[in-house]
Amino acid sequence: MNEEDARGYIKKPWAKNYDQDVPVEIEIPEIPLYQFLVDSARKYPSHKAMIFYGGKTSSLLRRDMTYGELFDKARRFSSFLKDKGISKGDVVLLMLPNSPQFAIAYYGTLLVGGTVSPMNVLYTPREIEHQAEKTRARILVSLDLFKNKIDTADVNIETIIYTGLEDFLPALGGFLYRLKMRKELPKIQRENGVMFLKDIFKDYKPVERFAEIDSKNDIAALMFTGGTTGLPKPAMLSHYNLVSNAYQIDSWYKRGSKAKDIMMGVLPWFHIYGQSAVLNSAMLRAATILVYPKWDVIEVMKGIEKHKPNLFHGVPLMYQVIVNHPKVREFDLSSLEACISGAAPLPVAVAEKFEELTGAKLREGYGLTETSPVTHVNPIMGKAKRGSIGLPIPNTIAAVADIEKPVILPPGNEGELVIAGPQVMLGYKDMPEENESAFFECCGYRWVRTGDIAKMDEEGYFYIVDRKKDLIKYKGYSIFPREVEEVLYRHPCVKEAAVIGAPHKEWFEYVKAYVVLKDECKGKVTPEEIIEFAKKGLAEYKVPKVIEFRDDLPKTAVGKILRRILREEELRKMKGAEGQH
């Protein structure tokens, strides 16, 4: 194999650009993931673990939960699972938004040795069926609002446990929530196979002994990939994978003493980014999380002003909504210190405006489900390069490989980003062919392919050029949509942009852009003006041939724009037009 080419990456040229005191290698203990909660609860039982509905100004409408209470309830849930015969290898599905219930069920499952498999709360019955079938789960914990979808899905699950958001609100908050949601809350009967989470807390005592875990081989979480290229695939993440990533993230922050940080909890925990960077990281540090079941920009800004969080993990859309909100300057957001953006490209203009408004450091990072997920981040205090995903984090090696062959390319080339490190998944569950194409070995390392085209500069900073499957072929040219989108984002009226290769009979594809305008620009800017603007920053063949204005763009639950949906729309239009002739 090409060991000489790989050596340029294995020597970690990026290490010299780490912030001072951030180590290149850290010691990662081989412990169960649940140990984070056990240690924090025993040392800081009275410290706040969560502030539920943190944007509420009145304490009668929000709920604080200590580490001691969280640990107690997780152990009670674990006792219930043990009574049901759940043990190592058994899967518990979670269909819950960010809430105390999520954390309780998550860690309660781990304490008994089970595997958690969170589901996107936006899933349709078909998608619920797919995940239930692939995991062979015996238990499902769900928010009561999702009962109708679950009833519609054809799933073979022994026990469904329902909970309501009001279960963890003060009396007044719970009453007002039920009043507001009275038409949407379904009637649920206690019957065979149907239970309520609040009854479990009353009926079961906290479990005293926890499962013995083989950290490197036992699966803590079965996480399903976003499914942007088909049905989601189940990635097996071991306890060691997830413990590693929490320690890696923590070392990048250089946080110091425990029980000091307050973190924003707006990223969905059913997504691996929110789970690792927020939930697990907070448990490791005994941090307090401001917990939001759904994204609400006003509630988020209220929460920042009231509770003074210093850490914020988000996605570009969140930061974009904040900087564009007409009332943003009415809130004091100055407590924020370190903010990380991941899951999608961060427009340079958004980062600059957010930093100017808050005084915080907003840094772009990178990761994927298969890597637990974080692999790269820009330095918090040191040199951050706009448009770059940053440097590989401690204990991580990144390289650029040939798209087709298991060959590492010399530094300076563009190719597929590949990752080696302790956070790399064990593999996809029961999918040998996918595993064969996802991994290759070279130079003593096991590399996972990311599907992203990347390059590394001379200082070790990595740049995502685009998705391998999103490359546009136009008249023999190769065009990366992200490059075109970055130029469009520079236009003062562009709020969001997505670029695809739309099908064409003669050219195969042409460049088409979908643009969401800022409210104050609607009706005042034409597609032709946007095209003329793009010509100033792009070669002629890269300039969009068509600009289509939209009110919004299709996105995943964490705000990643789904170009695939837009391409499918264009393909249907083309087929429909052909059918009319």
Report on this model:
The chain is α/β, with parallel strands linked by helices and 581 residues long. It has a domain at 471-579: 2-Layer Sandwich (GMP Synthetase, Chain A, domain 3), CATH 3.30.300. The protein contains 17 helices and 27 strands. It is globular and about 70 Å long.
Radius of gyration: 24 Å
At the fourth level of CATH, the homologous superfamily of one domain is: ANL, C-terminal domain
CATH fold description of one domain: GMP Synthetase, Chain A, domain 3
Biggest sheet, spatial arrangement of strands? 4-3-5-6-7
CATH architecture verdict of one domain: 2-Layer Sandwich
List the keywords:
581 residues, alpha/beta, GMP Synthetase, Chain A, domain 3, five-stranded parallel sheet, five-stranded mixed sheet, 17 helices, 27 strands, globular
Set down the secondary structure blueprint:
Layout: H1 3-10, H2 35-43, E1 48-52, E2 63-66, H3 67-83, E3 91-95, H4 100-111, E4 115-118, H5 125-135, E5 139-143, H6 147-152, E6 159-163, H7 171-180, E7 194-196, H8 197-203, E8 219-224, E9 234-238, H9 239-253, E10 262-265, H10 272-285, E11 288-291, H11 297-307, E12 311-314, H12 316-324, E13 338-341, H13 348-358, E14 361-367, E15 374-377, E16 391-392, E17 397-401, E18 415-420, E19 427-428, H14 432-438, E20 439-442, E21 445-456, E22 462-467, E23 472-474, E24 477-479, H15 481-489, E25 494-504, E26 508-517, H16 527-535, E27 546-549, H17 563-579
Parallel strand pairs: 1-11, 3-4, 3-5, 5-6, 6-7, 10-11, 12-13, 13-14, 26-27
Antiparallel strand pairs: 1-2, 8-9, 9-19, 14-15, 15-16, 17-18, 18-21, 20-21, 21-22, 23-24, 25-26
